[in-house]
Description:
The chain is an alpha/beta fold and 434 residues long. It has 16 helices and 15 strands. Residues 1-41 have low confidence and may be disordered. Adenosine-5'-triphosphate is lined by residues 226-228, 230-233, 250-252, 329-331, 336, 338-339, 386-388.
Amino acid sequence: MRRKSWRSLYQSCADTQDTKTLQRRFAAQRTGLQKGKRRVSMYQAFLIKYGEIGVKGKNRHIFEDTLVSQTANALRSVDGEFTVRKENGRIYAEAQTAFDFDEVADALSCVFGIVGFCPVVLLEDEGFEQLAQTVVDHVRQEFPKRDFTLKVITRRARKNYPMESMEVSAALGERLLEAFPELRVDVHHPQVTLYVEIRNKINLYSRILPGPGGMPVGTAGRAMLLLSGGIDSPVAGYMIAKRGVKLDAVYFHAPPYTSERAKEKVIDLARTVAKYAGPIRLHIINFTEIQLYIYDKCPHDQLTIIMRRYMMKLAEYFAGQEEALGLITGESIGQVASQTMQSLAVTNEVCTMPVYRPLIGFDKQDIVDIALKIGTYETSILPFEDCCTIFVAKHPVTKPNLKSILKSESHLTEKIDALMQEAIDTAEMVRVEA
Ligand code: ATP
Ligand code: MG
């Protein structure tokens, strides 16, 4: 069934309803279950609020343009069509068709750079009377129970409007109290703030939904995430992407010691991270032969550290291929033997690129809290072995010494280089999208 445009829906309906009713109605329309003739009022647009970008100097437009394109990308997957545009330092996502409110809210809440978004009614200026009537309708429709305190804030970006901001707020407040005597005004701590912004069109909104904050992905270069099936690394990727960094990822597996399910789990995790970070090129590297060779030649209490050094080297190779500027891991000081300060120093020694460890000072519970919030936790706790856990010694060194590690590594002949090359040559690349 072809969707009607927002405007035709708006015009074809008979009496006002709250947002939930609207959502039900649009859902019904999508499934062809049109019920009764009601007038549906609905937001035409979302006003996107952004934080840190606003303080950028000359480069501000680059950040804004990236936010526009990231917002448009995120809205491509929702039910409904939108155009996203920039106007006088504001970003609007304007609906061209009916849309599913929850889906749109979900999509916008994943776009880094957005600190908040407001479902907004855009009005032509047809005089104060018309504005007052629309404001009263808006409050009636948006808040079926009106036993709250309210404040009206008016901003007049268009200075030729015949009334001053304070005057508009006061007059609208008065109209609202007349229409809804149960409302109370509280200018200090209102429960609801109604914003009226007089611009090219008048913007009317009363709800600010939270965005994730951060910077738009694509404004800060690329980095290579070492993504395992654990709880930490997806969170680490999320945190660096939040600062505007585009992600690629590497996953080391060890078939047949690790299963196809373990690999699927990592792809699923990458897919969840991609909801925020955009498409991820995931390189899946077969680490089995390297692990077996190290297992054969090196002291077992040093296995984890030596394997991690080889992982870092390979990750750095793929990072170079992707023109990434750094590596990202989910390490946190003291979490396990390979994450003591000494272990981290020895692992880091092979890296020539910066290694970003955004969780370095986090307790596990802090990391779990973020994993729950971003939706990776449920997948991370699925019980599939990842390659590190299989070859772990009972008593790994916790304070490795670089000299002794280098001595152990000297037992690895040039065969290790051939195995590394083979791992590179046989790597599989999967483009993962949300
Ligand atoms: P996670 O940190 O993802 O929960 P983990 O707690 O098991 O996994 P470690 O095994 O100590 O952590 O690994 C530390 C970091 O090394 C991980 O956060 C991840 O960045 C990287 N890493 C570990 N195993 C792999 C792997 N199989 N493939 C890619 N990266 C890995
Ligand atoms: Mg970890």
